[in-house]
What does this fold into?
Amino acid sequence: MTVQASEEVGVFRAEPIAAGVGVIEIRRGAETYLTVHVLRALLRELAALDADPDCGAVVVRSEGKHFCAGRDWRVARDPADTAAAIYETAPGFLALTKPWIAELTGGSIGVGMGLALCADYRVAADSAYLWPKFVAIGIHHGFGLTATLPWLVGNQRATEMLSLGRRISMPEASATGLVDRVVPATDVRGAAEDFAAELAGQPRAALQAIKRTMRAGLRESFVQAIRHEQAVQRSLYESADFQRETGGGYRYRPEQ
It folds into this structure.
């Protein structure tokens, strides 16, 4: 299998497409921290597969121990890697016409959980976990979790999860509808690809029409949610809690 790199930021699209399934792998080390450059590259590769007539469904996976550990607060960022830029990418992950599956291994933490919940489906290793950790660092949740989490588990359960910011194990995630398949870690790649192949084998026009119908309300509420989330997060950037828990909040490298 050959791969095509997206601007050397650690996002690779497998070629050729097999059984109608496109595969994208994020290679960002063990933690799989997200930057705006990674999100743009991932969205670009998803859009390419969305437009490919040979592709009926897509699997997004990570090479590292985590699907995504969120943002790395220990390092100064590229000046272009702003919260505003991150939010600009978010609606694109719900605008795709073909179903995509997030293959969850390790943690999906913070914005990583937000990304995972943008997927149409989630296939998870039994050792994986979801962690809406925002409140623990003194910040409001983001990346559309205001819309996607209640969509899946209901408003009361979502409020509790976000307010406590606790790790969510796969038994709970499965019971509440956060994930669609849970399998042993050794089987997760095959399970995700098999599920995607089953989706890709359905009549394409009908499959995409069902997705448009069933997610129309989510797409609309998601756009409103990220506007609100970004504004509230901005209001908390200078809070003592956020500054303490992140070692100084947002820090940027000087432009070269």
About this structure: The chain has a mean pLDDT of 95.
